[in-house]
Amino acid sequence: MACKAIAKLAWAEPTLIQETAIPLLLEGKDVLMRARTGSGKTAAFAIPVIQKIINLKHTSAYQCIRALILSPSKELCGQISSVVADLTLKCGREIRCVDISPTGDMQTQKSLLLDKPDIVVATPSKALIHLKASNMKLKDDLAMLVVDEADLIFSFGYEDEIKELLGFLPKIYQAVLASATLSDDVLSLKKIVLRNPVTLKLEEPELAPSSQLQHYHLFAEEDDKAAILYALLKLNLIRGKSIIFVRTVDRCYNPMLLLPSRQWEQFKIGACVLNSELPAAVRCLSVEQFNRGKYQIIVASDEKSLEKPDGGLLSHKEEKHKEKKQSSKRKRDKESGVSRGIDFQHVSNVINFDFPLDVSSYVHRAGRTARGNNQGSVLSFVSIREKPLMFAVEEHLSKVFNNQRVLQKYEFALEEMEGFRYRSRDAWRAVTRIAVREARLKEIKQELLNCKKLQGYFEENPNDLAALRRDKALHTVRLQPQLAHVPEYLLPAALRTESSAADDDQDAQEPAPPKPKENKRKQPVHHGSVKRHKYQARRSNPLQSFEIKGIKRKTRNTKGADAAASGDT
Ligand SMILES: Nc1ncnc2c1ncn2[C@@H]1O[C@H](COP(=O)(O)OP(=O)(O)OP(=O)(O)O)[C@@H](O)[C@H]1O
């Protein structure tokens, strides 16, 4: 049955970790699997879990919870349960899996658990709450325990919960730890969770090879970062789904405000924000909608705020102090993870608008693209103060890939982009702290209006609903409609024909000055054959020709830069 489901997922062959781990797990061994991010670890443990339950059900019809899968964040729990759902698609109602990680009605979760689903997916703290409340009992029947993203379990602060939780489990059960790294935390967890385990440490780099994943960097200061992003998007040099990573939650809203929704729409690109301060339901919905293709871009922050008001980076001590001070004001969800482990599907580009603060963060962000057998690229904007961070990543990647120079320079002649620079600088500066706050308030207001639970309240209190709707427009950033349209004179010469055509598409959505009537299709192809016409079009296409007058890229970068630009997967 699982095989039929796998066929439906169109997985032609197992990944390396699946090929090695599944037979060991089917033999009943405890396994610690370390394999790179995006290598298919979820199915590597989920398939044996499902198979074990099917086998046990053949020997005993007694219904009970037979597997507990723990993961550090709600997003990851949701993801695991949807992989289990995909893999049990052909099992009908025979195997039931319940995800109790979402914050919600405990009574509903209790009744789901009392129904004894075969598999329970939870964060450690949620599992513990239900175990303590006797809503689920595992002491007699649990056959399998899985801890996914084991390297994050302690760093997310679950050490005590895990230790306490083990007291609710039977003496004998099979256990699996899955992790992208073999950190000290994982080794400590291994000691307390696994018995005589087989350790699978695949001899493969922690990221996909450079034939599949290309890394680029581009030196740029704050104002220029915005201009470059604006130009890359407007000139269609970034194609396919992209994740733009920024350092802090507030900065998530900057690129969004710089390119306000109207403009994203004009790009025909849907964009949304993802960060740990959004409610879990909104985060999960954003990821789901992004995966379904509703949004082309996610602007995500995966770090806590490490920035000083003057723009410098905070020391660890300063950061802790700031966090303590802020904790009463701003609520960050401990059970949230953005770059770690989330299976954003078919992402062509990861753009580090802010460079990640350490090597492991870079690896995890980069791991959001080139997943499975897909192609991908990472483009990092690096300011002067971020250079040391970049050098650390460069050194690390070159060690991982046998002294190869992995991080390539993305050649981009910003001086040719003066027009973009001028326009975006203006818009970027309009994004003040107040504007960010207002944007976030607007988001909350929208959430209230969409909240199903409040629908009843609004029906009974229509005045409140009207007041909320009537509320003054919160968007204090002056929208600059001219940003949506890039006049031809702003473009580098080599891009004029193509991008003005792209703009023509956009112009179709907004009132445009009347143009002389002409039917492009009917225009004859002058001077030569169709082949020649195609050749000329190819020559003027910066993505296909090696030499670009406006934006200079060196030939050695062209292949990767094309991938970065086209993002074809
Ligand atoms: N055998 C396979 N063939 C093709 N694609 C696969 C296969 N197994 C899994 N995948 C796909 O690979 C992607 C990554 O899988 P998964 O999320 O399980 O990776 P992971 O190793 O758990 O990553 P992370 O460490 O980041 O959590 C998913 O989109 C999944 O659908």
From TrEMBL:
Residues 212-418 form the Helicase C-terminal domain. One of its GO terms (cellular component) is cytosol. Its EC number is 3.6.4.13. Belongs to the DEAD box helicase family. DDX56/DBP9 subfamily. PANTHER family: ATP-DEPENDENT RNA HELICASE RHLE-RELATED, DEAD-BOX HELICASE 56. Gene3D superfamilies: P-loop containing nucleotide triphosphate hydrolases. GO terms for molecular function: ATP binding; hydrolase activity; RNA binding; RNA helicase activity. The keyword Heme does not apply. InterPro entries: DEAD/DEAH_box_helicase_dom, DEAD_box_RNA_helicase, Helicase_ATP-bd, Helicase_C-like, P-loop_NTPase. It catalyses: ATP + H2O = ADP + phosphate + H(+). Residues 322-332, 518-537 have a biased composition (Basic residues). It comes from Eumeta variegata. It is an enzyme of class 3 (hydrolase). This is RNA helicase. Keywords: ATP-binding, Helicase, Hydrolase, Nucleotide-binding, RNA-binding. Residues 306-338, 498-569 are annotated as: Disordered. Residues 306-321 have a biased composition (Basic and acidic residues). Residues 22-200 form the Helicase ATP-binding domain.
